[in-house]
Amino acid sequence: MTERQLQPLLHELVGVVLAPTSTLGDAAGQIRPTGVQGVFHADARVLSRAELRVDDREPEGLTRGPAGPHGVRFVGLARWLGDPGPDPTVRVERLRRVSPGGLTEELRIVSTASVPVRATVTVELGCDLAPIEVVKTGGATEPLEAKTGQPGRLVWSAAGITVTVTAEGATVDATGVRATAPRLSWPVDLPPRGESVLRWGLTVEDPRAVVVCPPGEPAWSRATLRADDRRLVRLLDRSLDDLRGLRLAETGAPADVFLGAGVPWFLTLFGRDSLWAARMMLPLGTDLAAGTLRVLARRQGTRVDPASGEAPGKILHELRRHEFAPGDGLRLPPAYYGTVDATMLWVNLLHDAWRWGLPADQVEPLLPHLDAALGWLAEHADADGDGLVEYIDTLGHGLANQGWKDSGDAVRFRDGTLAAPPIVLAEVQGYAHEAAVNGAALLDAFGRPGGERWREYAARLAGRFRAAFWVDGPYGPQPALALDRDKRPVDSLTSNIGHLLGTGLLTADEEAQVARLLATEALSGGYGLRTMSTDDAGFSPLSYHCGSVWTHDTAIVLANLARAGFRDAALGLADGLLGAAESFDYRLPELYGGDDRELLGRPAPYPAACRPQAWAAAGAVLLLQAAAGLYPDVPGGTVRLAPLAGPELGAVAVERLTVAGAPVGVTVDRTGHPTVTGLPAHLTVETPAPVPAQRPAPTDRPVPA
């Protein structure tokens, strides 16, 4: 029997990040030469081992905690040293920090013993410079030989990358068998109640990296929050720390900052992820949106190239230093355009940033790219000319599915059968409708032609969607997940329908029905919104896209529900998301299991999920916006206040939101009454009339045939 090559698990590992550098180690602080543990830099593992020992014994792990946004402190015990008796008297603290292009560790040996303590502290190292795709697939790697020269110094070099370790006061052994497993060692001689501090560090030289750590502090505002539900405060604080660590810039363009998708697999530019994350972050300022828009505009497609999926006006999917070939026949070129939705998301981010106050002098240089993006939608997004946006893998070795649910088995009928491409995804039609309307608004506002053409396009698309997508489901009418090659509705019930809310594609009655579907136990009975309902044959709680819960997906749909006035459904998802946050120490992963809440009392980890991950962390900001209910239209001179906070979620008071560059505060009391301060004088506050009593959610039992 052939043994499977399995993707390594990482759900129990402890990560630290300052992109493009990150580390993953075990709960005790060790970095072991196994699985996905290591120090990574821009798509390469630059250290595969860092194991600490005291007298050739591993300290016993006791606890750990964050040490700032880019650090973690581990505490262990050396119970064989110090005073006899049950109380440990020698502890080992390991402070790990990631810095731009490097890492430092401070090892503190602390004794409260009444006797002297003598020991030898060692750190055994290894470096394989393995590409991230080899690590991701569980491929075998071999450690490289280290070179020595100056005292306390080790160097590895391959594939244009040079890794240097320096250790003050350490003896280095890298001879013989230790050439591939070099060891740093320090003698420690402590008086009673003494302590010793040892240090070592790593630096990376990687001139071929396509992404770099941007200089300076984050441009977005650091919002401060007081809330009755302290989970929301803790989630926001941890998420903002993680987002700080995920900032990236392209090599050669450090001023334009975007968010790398996630640790460890996707710490680079991803069109869809970076755009969604920037859109979620708009309540804290428009600088991140502007940087993301400019970076992707520079790489906007200019020609038809089936080898990369490029087309004129199309927005990039992902950027790597070399071909990305993680196995199963998937081989992606370094600049890959295999995404059906990023182009529309680019248009929608530009529009929303403008509504939040992106200055005209930053919008105007992007308008030719807006024209090009809309041109792609008109000329390249609808290959068969039926008026709907579809995709198919033109490479033969690219992504079979090119929406955000991009795994090969993501698009299934209710009976579990896979849909055959080309695929017409439901939410993509919503994004296209929204992009057409938003693009028209921008064209009108800046005196460019074409606005009426795109409004007419949106109206036609809504009619075609209504005729083709609505099917009878177990809870009444529902939008299908997709249309397959033969234009048959793929009739599974999925979270995708939540992305239609607010795009303008649906009527008010249709939105109300979608809200009722989203509130069913079949979709919302876990800790958030399941990607596929429990009634569908393809459902599995640990399927990547057919039953798991994705943090960003839940946050987006929650925000859409809140903005549209479907308060009860939004509150249910908010409670699930906050419950999950508590279980994951407020660092929400990319995704987690879709089991019923009653099964474990906490969500099951998805074992290969990125954590931290950009759009998962940015989901905390979107939840904050929904709670505060702040919806500006700076060009229109208005700000709408419609908070989700109030009797159920509790009171909130947030400072340092940003509208038109001005710091803004919102307070919502326990009755749901909002107050806003700091708005620029030209903006008028609008408070919508109370939403009529909502019709109850459908029963959990399917509608009788």
Automatic annotation (TrEMBL):
Region described as Disordered: 686-705
Mannosylglycerate hydrolase MGH1-like glycoside hydrolase domain location: 339-582
InterPro entries in alphabetical order: 6-hairpin_glycosidase_sf (IPR008928), 6hp_glycosidase-like_sf (IPR012341), GDE_N_bis (IPR032856), MGH1-like_GH (IPR054491)
Domain Putative glycogen debranching enzyme N-terminal, chain residue ranges per copy: 21-199
Biased composition (Pro residues): 689-705
One Pfam family recorded for the sequence: MGH1-like_GH
GO biological process: carbohydrate metabolic process
Protein name according to UniProt: Amylo-alpha-1,6-glucosidase
Biological source species: Micromonospora costi
